[in-house]
Amino acid sequence: MPGKNSIVTKLVLVITLCSTLIFAVTLGYNYYRSRVVLENELEANARNLAMSLVYHVETELIGVAKVTEGVANSLESGQYTEKELLSLIRTTVEKNPDIYGSTVAFEPYAFSPSIRLFAPYFYRDKGKIAFSRLEDSYQYVPYLYWDWYQIPRELGKTEWSEPYFDEGAGNTVMSTCSVPFYGEKNGTRILKGIVTADVSLDSLTQMISSVKILKSGYAALLSRNGMLLAHPLKDAVMNETFFSIAEARNDASLRELGKKMVSGESGFILYNSLMGFRSWMYYAPVRSTGWTLAVVFPEAELLENVRCLSMTMAAMGFAGLLLLVATVVYVASAIIKPLRLLAAATDDIASGNFDVELPAVRSKDEVGVLTHDFQVMKTSLKEYIKNLTETTAAKERIQSELRMATEIQASLLPRLFPAFPDRPEFDIYASMDPAKEVGGDFYDFFFIDDTNLCFLIADVSDKGVPAALYMMVAKTLLKSEGQRLGEPDQILSCVNNILASDNDSTMFATVFCAILDTVTGVVRFANAGHNAPVIMDSQGIRYLTLKPGFVLGPMPGIVYKAERLTLKAGDTLFLYTDGVTEAQNMEQELYGEERLLNALKQAPKEDVTEMIHYIRSVVTLHTNGASQSDDITMLALKYRKEGT
Amino acid sequence: MLPLSTWAVSEPVLKKATLMPLWTPQAQFAGYYVALDKGIYARYGIDLKILNAGPGHDPVRALKDGSADFAILWLTTAIQQRSAGTDLVNLAQIIQRSSMMLISRKSSGIRTVSDMNGKKVGLWGGDLSIPPHALFIKYGIKVREVPQNATVNLFLRGGIDVTSAMWYNEYHTIINSGLDPEELNVFSMNELGMNFPEDGIYAMEKTLHNDPALAGAFVKASLDGWRYAFEHPEEALDIVIRRMREAKIPANRIHQKWMLDRMRDMIMPGTSLGAPGILKEKDYEAVCSSLLKAGLIRSCPYYDAFSRRSDAGEK
């Protein structure tokens, strides 16, 4: 299973995200465009449907109104007897199947001065034409006070009444078309009465209710007051207005919509229908009555096809995405697999196992090249490490030998201090710190006889093993010749001749050799190119002025001059090699003779051990961590003049 | 004496009684229908029958001819009748103030009562025209009266400039026919100093004299019915709407809810107007004085004789 950071996972994630995004945008745009197209089409359809229904209703209503107005005209133009009037009304009802009933209702005493109210009414009853007199059938409220009479009378024009249940006369839900008609009296036009034709709303509302739109869409009819005349909400028909429903649902937008509808506007809107679902509605006025006809398309059903298509596309897209992911996983895994094997193998290599088998190279792609390179690298590394192991072993052997050489060299120099505990006439102390394992510097001191102490310090040119070997020769010669000859100039001359005779390597050494007469304090000394020692006596601390002398080794036949000085009790001689004065710090600044002289002034004078340790520490302080480039060797002798 | 209700429970035989409301079933009479439906009258020992009312049914006539023991009448009607010699008495005043109003469209330019001078004003017939008539007399204006029927269509179609309306009924019908309150000017009788308390419970003096306990129980049960209706408005509306359907009257629940809410405003007013059911002498005198001024009555009946509180028999 590829991990969170695997290339396969990243690849799958990126490709899936991008594909999903592209797909979602495409799908969304497709849905939106389809919807817009559908909505445009719907608006046209809805308008056509509504207009055809409106036309249907209007045709019927206008026909009825024309007939009624015709009757009113004929009543204005001629005088009718009661019989003629009844016949006229009856014929009107008979000839016009859309007219449910009709009356000519007269103003008080307008039909006859002897009759106050007169309103003969013909209406349909079980397929026959029935007759009643409205002045009698309206028991409690005379016809004069009914809307169908009052409104056209007060307005003086044809009016359709708000639909009502005509209890007593028609006994059905009807709307009445009322037309006032006039007569003349003393030259003025006066109202004689109202001609009416009732339209039963049954057939109209049935026709509208029978309109089926999709599964749950419908057509509806509202009165001028917003009363529901035809609507799937059966309980609300003739009981509720659009506004009372809006109030019951506390929906101000519904009320606003209702106001637009009853004010005779037409429109196409998306709204929450009274049936409780999001719907598109086209509404248009029925001009003659001021009613509103509406056709309602449930949005969900309308968009069902688009939604179905979108869902199918979404499903296909999802399946495609799955396929894509599977393919990407497969391809990526195929590409990544040799890399993974290689990674696993290199894990082993990284932990030091160079014998691991790298996966076989099957292709010449980047992974193949990489595997081949790894193979080469593995072999080279193996070879290199083998060499390194051998070299290291050799080096370790040399190291151990060098360690031994160091010990041997160190053991050659007198290291026991105090060196002569039974000789209180002087104190002597010396130290040698080689720059490498073995050094070229050395010092020595030994008695030639009971009173003469020979002490010397030397510095072999070059460093390391050759210098050490040369030093051993020089030291051995100096000691043996020192004991044999007993004079410093002779010792140096003799040793120089021996060294120079077989000196192919042209190595040399500087030596300061001195012999102290412990009784008199006289020091005889000779110098073979060595640094001048420091003397500390009652006159102060200063470098000795030496006669020049050639170094030991390169050339035979050199003659060295002997000098002498006398030490008083408390005087000290300080010998050193150039490792001290040429000690460098990081800035390659030499320690120098002047600093050495100053340091000696500060150093403890009484104890030569402490003195040398002090100088050593001051030099270390100066070098301040810089690597030691030369051997550092010091020897101090303090004359005390005690004993005999 | 035991409390009446205790006595009623122990008495299995219920006294028959009849009530005629002022109009067809609607929330204006919710208290009575609820009291009947919830058995409150029966608990008070009354086997009540609520008679059909509305067009063709005159509660005054029903009281007079004995076909109704109790009736709901307006105070103005009752004072007129009493003044004209009908021996009816007020047992309880249910609606404590006038809910009548005149309404004009703002667009008609009628902004004050005086603006109605010469305009077509729809007026209901009979006693319901008394408050507006009194108002016109008070303002000294003459309007063109147009008889108004039960609908507001004449007004909605523009056949009249001003319509009569009850706050609890026609006002709301107009709103629910698509006119916004902001489009209307409302002249409330109550605010114009024509504060005529309306619905009250009445009986003939004879009925009260014959069985004062029945009259007392009837009033208490009716008030209990109202209290129950206000505490359980949805149930009360169910009861009223069932009655309306039985009477084949178009029923519109939100309209009946509006009506019931207004009834609460007028029956259970703040404490300043006193306890429900009481006809205050001050109100009575004010109505009498208006009627006298308008020439609608010749003399004001004595308050004590007119207002026989339900518990009068027990005093």
What does this entry show, briefly?
The complex is a heterodimer of chains A (644) and B (315). With 644 residues, chain A is α+β, with helices and mostly antiparallel strands.
How is this fold's topology laid out?
The complex is a heterodimer of chains A (644) and B (315).
Chain A: H1 7-77, H2 82-95, E1 101-106, E2 120-125, E3 128-133, H3 134-137, H4 147-155, E4 159-160, E5 164-165, E6 173-185, E7 188-200, H5 201-209, E8 212-213, E9 217-222, E10 228-230, H6 242-248, H7 252-262, E11 267-272, E12 278-286, E13 291-298, H8 299-302, H9 304-350, H10 366-412, E14 426-433, E15 441-447, E16 452-460, H11 464-485, H12 488-501, E17 509-517, E18 522-528, E19 534-537, E20 540-543, E21 563-566, E22 572-576, H13 578-581, H14 593-602, H15 608-623, E23 632-639
Antiparallel strand pairs in A: 1-2, 1-7, 2-3, 4-6, 5-6, 6-7, 8-9, 9-10, 9-13, 11-12, 12-13, 14-23, 15-16, 16-17, 17-18, 18-21, 19-20, 19-22, 22-23
Helix pairs in contact in A: 1-9, 6-7, 9-10, 11-12
Chain B: H1 4-10, E1 15-20, H2 30-37, H3 40-43, E2 46-50, H4 59-64, E3 70-74, H5 75-83, E4 88-93, E5 100-105, E6 120-123, H6 130-139, E7 144-147, H7 153-156, E8 162-166, H8 170-175, E9 184-188, E10 199-204, H9 205-210, H10 212-231, H11 233-246, H12 253-267, H13 281-293, H14 303-306
Parallel strand pairs in B: 1-2, 1-3, 6-7
Antiparallel strand pairs in B: 3-10, 4-10, 5-8, 5-9
How is this structure best described in words?
The complex is a heterodimer of chains A (644) and B (315). Chain A is rod-shaped. Chain A has helices at residues 7-77, 82-95, 134-137, 147-155, 201-209, 242-248, 252-262, 299-302, 304-350, 366-412, 464-485, 488-501, 578-581, 593-602, 608-623; strands at residues 101-106, 120-125, 128-133, 159-160, 164-165, 173-185, 188-200, 212-213, 217-222, 228-230, 267-272, 278-286, 291-298, 426-433, 441-447, 452-460, 509-517, 522-528, 534-537, 540-543, 563-566, 572-576, 632-639. Chain A is built from 15 helices and 23 strands. In chain A, 45% of the residues lie in helices and 23% in strands. In chain A, strand 2 (120-125) and strand 3 form a beta hairpin. In chain A, the strands form 4 sheets. In chain A, strands 1, 2, 3, 4, 5, 6 and 7 form a 7-stranded antiparallel β-sheet that branches. Chain A starts with 6 loop residues before the first helix and ends in a 5-residue tail after the last strand. The model of chain A has no long low-confidence stretch (mean pLDDT 88). With 644 residues, chain A is of the alpha+beta class. The relative contact order of chain A is 0.07. In chain B, helix 6 (130-139) links the parallel strand 6 (120-123) and strand 7. Chain B contains 14 helices and 10 strands. Chain B has helices at residues 4-10, 30-37, 40-43, 59-64, 75-83, 130-139, 153-156, 170-175, 205-210, 212-231, 233-246, 253-267, 281-293, 303-306, and strands at 15-20, 46-50, 70-74, 88-93, 100-105, 120-123, 144-147, 162-166, 184-188, 199-204. Chain B is globular and about 65 Å long. Chain B is an alpha/beta fold and 315 residues long. In chain B, the strands form 3 sheets. A 5-stranded mixed β-sheet of chain B has the order 2-1-3-10-4. In chain B, strands 8-5-9 form a 3-stranded antiparallel β-sheet, with no helix packed on it. The chains are: A alpha+beta (644), B alpha/beta (315). Chains A and B meet through helix 4, strand 5, helix 6 and helix 7 of A and helix 7 and helix 12 of B.
